[in-house]
């Protein structure tokens, strides 16, 4: 399975290698121009080590790259690497979070928009603390109370992207099973449904319910997430979660397939207005 930032490092490295070749330079000559050792250029081009945006600028200047759009793309690729930075608050939890989860948070924190199909549980960005605790405890057996507290803390910290300026735009299609599955007991579920009603009214959140009456649909194969980035569609990625790892899909044909699938799900789901009424009705009867 490929991790998001690792994929981006390789993509960035391949682009820089192509630009160096077009400039007629060897890796050694490029290293001399920027005052580095040749091995550093090689590690960057093979994606085996991260690279700071400032270093990317040095290389682009050395290669005579003046295309502003291309420069912006490569700088965004460098900034998306999981190597530190002002947005990477989750580094404080490196000893607790597995790499795949850190990769997911990295993408989520930098994306402009997120489209998600959820078939089992409420999206993490919309969970209440009590619901998040119940879900995490059920999903990961044998957790100590301290570790459980930390994972819930991370889940809640992730929700800041919806309050950022500008906020992440979240579009979610929820299978009706998400609303009907009682997680944590009746009281916890009632408060979670109320939270969904509140979230559905936010301008940056679009919630749609896919009722059981819709029958079989393209999402029966499982949940997925599509992250989009404003700077360039070349960074868009699909994330598929598995029990022990995550798969990141970045090929254009994969992105198109999942984007079309999400569009189809939105068509078959209730409208946002009807979904809000449906969630509120479910909450009233919970």
UniProtKB/TrEMBL annotation:
The record's annotation in SMART domains points to: HTH_XRE
Which domain of life does the protein's organism represent? Bacteria
Residue ranges annotated as coiled coil are none
Record-linked CDD domains: HTH_XRE
Record's PROSITE patterns? Answer: HTH_CROC1
InterPro entries xrefs:
Cro/C1-type_HTH, DUF5753, Lambda_DNA-bd_dom_sf
* Domain HTH cro/C1-type: start-end pairs: 16-70
Q: What is this protein called?
A: Helix-turn-helix domain-containing protein
Tell me the organism's taxonomic lineage.
Bacteria, Bacillati, Actinomycetota, Actinomycetes, Kitasatosporales
């Amino acid at each position: 399975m490929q991790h998001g930032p690792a994929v981006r490092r390789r993509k960035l490295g391949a682009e820089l290698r192509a630009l160096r070749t077009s400039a007629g330079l060897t890796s050694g000559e490029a290293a001399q121009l920027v005052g580095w050792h040749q091995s550093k250029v090689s590690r960057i081009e093979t994606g085996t080590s991260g690279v700071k945006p400032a270093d990317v600028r040095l290389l682009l200047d050395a290669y005579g790259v003046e295309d502003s759009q291309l420069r912006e793309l490569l700088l965004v690729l460098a900034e998306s690497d999981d190597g530190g930075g002002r947005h990477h608050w989750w580094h404080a939890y490196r000893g607790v979070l597995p790499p795949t989860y850190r990769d997911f948070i990295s993408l989520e924190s930098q994306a402009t928009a997120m489209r998600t199909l959820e078939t089992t549980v409420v999206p993490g960005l919309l969970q209440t603390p009590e619901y998040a605790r119940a879900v995490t405890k059920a999903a990961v057996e044998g957790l100590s109370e301290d570790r459980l507290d930390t994972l819930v803390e991370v889940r809640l910290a992730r929700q800041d992207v919806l309050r950022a300026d500008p906020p992440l735009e979240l579009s979610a299609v929820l299978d009706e099973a998400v609303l009907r599955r009682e997680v944590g007991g009746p009281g916890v579920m009632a408060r979670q449904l109320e939270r969904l009603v509140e979230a559905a009214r936010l301008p940056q959140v679009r919630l749609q319910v896919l009722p059981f009456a819709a029958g079989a649909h393209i999402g029966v194969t499982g949940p997925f997430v599509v992250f989009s980035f404003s700077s360039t569609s070349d960074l868009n990625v699909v994330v598929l979660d598995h029990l022990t790892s995550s798969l990141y899909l970045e090929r254009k044909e994969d992105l198109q397939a999942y984007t079309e699938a999400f569009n189809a799900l939105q068509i078959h789901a209730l409208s946002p207005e009807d979904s809000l009424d449906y969630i509120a009705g479910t909450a009233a009867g919970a």
